[in-house]
Amino acid sequence: MLVGWGGNNGSTFTAALLANRLGLDWETKTGRHSPNWYGSLTQASTVRLGYSASGREVHCPFPALLPMVHPDDIVVGGWDISSVDLGAAMERARVVDIDLQRRLRPYMDKLHPRPSIYFPDFIAANQADRVDNLLEGSKWEQLKTIRRDIRSFKMENNLDKVIVMWTANTERFSQVIEGVNDTADNLLGAIKTGHAEVSPSTLFAVASILEGFTYINGSPQNTFVPGCLELAEREGVFVGGDDFKSGQTKLKSVLVDFLVSAGIKPVSIVSYNHLGNNDGKNLSAPHQFKSKEISKSRVIDDMVSSNNILYKAGEKIDHIVVIKYVPYVGDSKRAMDEYVSEIMLGGHNTLAIHNTCEDSLLAAPIMLDLIVLAELASRITFKRADNSAEGDAADYCNFHPILSILSYMCKAPLVPPGNSLSRI
Fold it and tell me: Signal peptide span per the entry (predicted)?
């Protein structure tokens, strides 16, 4: 179930699921096209198994390696603050080619999002013109409604399990306040009293956790306040995030790792973006941009801390991120980066990169990967192979509720306290 189902990511993901399931071809000026899942780690990549007797490398498709759910078996639903059906949402997004839109409309016109939660303080004021599909009542009543929605969706579609994913607008950061959202019990109490610092995304996370289903945060805000993480650990429910890593940031994480690993010292990175979709419109507000800026900036931190030859303790790269809203370019985001690095004997190396990222077409396969891997993780238990473990350690156990295996697909990896994870 997608929160923000009618947005660019949600409508594009739904279109991709249906096009692949139904085998819908379509025409463009370049010829006939068939649906695929290019950009998906689980559907379009291979794993090297080893070498044959003749020394030839042997590769296996990723989905053939483990018993993963097939995308055709995924049922999608969700919530949105806009009541438009998914066919109209797809048209509004201007992502899917028009001939494929025509073929999908009979199926997507029938899909309608459930009413969602809207707190004006958390997203940009410029989103108000989309708001016509809201849950009424207090925060506690809204929480109970979301829980009922999850249960009814599972029952109506005869599903084994539900995964809830936030793919709605970026929110501002929530303040972490002692006595409000610092513990699980305090957070539940704050929801009951309607405290202003409980965000919509945290409400959805709490609802999903209390229903026993995985929750994934695809945006950069701090949905997982300490109380929310404590609740997930207490209930033994998976959570993952934060913020889909698709275009510019994926390239940045790989490139900076390459430079640092090669002994080259990046000292300045300036990243400029402009885009014209609703995400860009929402990010034109300063508080929402701040959430995204933090997420995009943190992606290089691990690389810097990994090399104490290049970087002294506390030394940082000058790293600036700029995002501008330009309606004309729509979902086709332009990303321009300048990387300045120090090389030997006082020399400098400068890389200037232009990257045109079709935002939602890059995000949708990552959404699929997060869903498929989260579902797979729910069926895996493990224990130590030796006999030295005693007590609980000798039994099979699940992954930690903070599902760090998903972090490869996220800008700001969510990991258990005390653990670290490469952001590559």
Answer: none
CB 190 within 8 A of CB 181: yes
Helix ranges restricted to H, 157-263: 184-193, 200-210, 226-235, 248-261
239-253: per-residue pLDDT in tens? 998 889 887 788 888
CA distance linking residue 396 with residue 385, whole number of Å? 11
Q: What distance in Å separates the CA atoms of residue 387 and residue 48, rounded to the nearest whole number?
A: 31
Shortest CA distance to 172 belongs to which of 204, 209, 125? 125
Which pLDDT tens digit goes with each residue over 264-281? Answer: 999 999 999 898 887 777
Q: List the catalytic residues.
A: 243, 292, 333, 411
| 3-class SS letters over 12-75 | HHHHHHHHHHHCCCEEECCEEECCCCCCCHHHHCEEEEEECCCCCEEEEEHHHHCCCCCHHHCC
Q: Cβ(265)–Cβ(218) under 8 Å? A: no
Identify the CA nearest to 200 among candidates 146, 125, 129: 146
Q: Tens digit of pLDDT for each residue in 19-63?
A: 999 999 999 999 999 999 999 999 999 999 999 999 999 999 998
pLDDT digits (tens, 9 = 90+) for 362-407: 999 999 999 999 999 999 998 877 756 565 556 889 999 999 999 8
> Which of these, 340, 287, 298, lies nearest to 321 by C-alpha position?
298
Q: Provide the token pair at 125.
A: 């004021």
Q: Write out the H or E segment, with its range, that includes residue 303.
A: helix 301-305
pTM: 0.91
Residue 216: both structure tokens together: 């994934």
Taking the CA atoms of residue 41, residue 44, residue 382 and residue 378 in that order, the dihedral angle to the nearest 10 degrees is: 80
**Confidence band of 301 (pLDDT split at 50, 70, 90):** confident
